[in-house]
Amino acid sequence: TMLPLLLLLLLPAAHGTVEHVDYTPSLAKSPMLEGLTTASTFVLEQPRCVFDKYGNADIWLVVALEKTATTFNNSVGPGTPERAFQKFPDSAPAYMTLNATLANYPCPKPAGDITVLRVGSETSCTEDVNRPTCNGPLSGPGPYRVKFLALEGSEPVAETDWSNPIMLRTAKSPNSISTTNGGHGAGMIALTTILSILFAILLAGLVAMLVFWGSDSCGGSSTFSKPEAVTVRRYNTHHVYDQPAARL
Question: Looking at residue 68, what is its pLDDT?
């Protein structure tokens, strides 16, 4: 009678056993991608050749803040309020997304296959509470940590290590932008700006003067006039005749 009772006591413990898979998720390394991290997304390597023993499992990506990753409970399944993207990170310490099967992660990798996952790329379901497993944009810079969890039905059967902390890009505040440029301070930059403005004003004035002088010289009248012919009357003993004088 003691043996069946002992088996019953051990059954829940055996049922809840989750295998630790020796794999650490990481940002994509090959090929080199533009936008490996952005202000709301990051790109991971796919977990190829990691869950080969679990052909019937669903493989989920777990996303958590670094400070809440240690409190993650793998018995809480995807799609629940505690794992909903829309409630992360305020009332959900982690969310589960990018549901896949082993067929999505074939091993070995076929030639030409894309072997990366972009976390945060789905914008259409960000506010849709009916899509709690949405792969929506991340709302802060992090740091985040992720891991993969394999479920058979609703039971977790295998999980990877947590990734190293992942920081997203942030836009620089105007106050954080350095006012120095190659060793020149803000005063030098201001002086250069003022001199440039004064030079532009001086140049504009010079051009205006040249235009004014040019128009004045073209519009004036000449002080010289064309000489007129003068008639000189000559007399001789026979007749009088008119002869034009030479032009002066």
Answer: 93
Give the span between the Cα atoms of 38 and 141, in whole angstroms.
9
Whose CA is closest to 143, among 172, 118, 120, 163? 163
Residue type, 121: S
Residues across the chain: 248
Q: Which domains does the chain have, with CATH numbers?
A: 19-170 (2.60.40.10)
DSSP tag of 111 = T
State both tokens at 45.
């390597």
Banded pLDDT at 205 (limits 50, 70, 90): confident
Q: By the 8 A CB rule, do 18 and 96 touch?
A: no
Per-state percent for the chain, helix, strand, coil, to nearest 5? 25, 20, 50
Query: Rounded to two decimals, what is the model's pTM?
Result: 0.64
Find out whether 124 and 77 touch, Cβ atoms under 8 Å. no
Mean pLDDT over 36-42 rounds to: 93
Closest CA to 44 of 101, 118, 113: 118
Cα 76 off chain centre by: 34
What does the DSSP assignment read for 53-118? Answer: T-TT-EEEEEEEEHHHHTT--TTSPTTSGGG-GGGTTTT-SEEEEEEE-GGGS-SSPPTT---EEE
The pLDDT of 239-248, averaged and rounded, is: 50
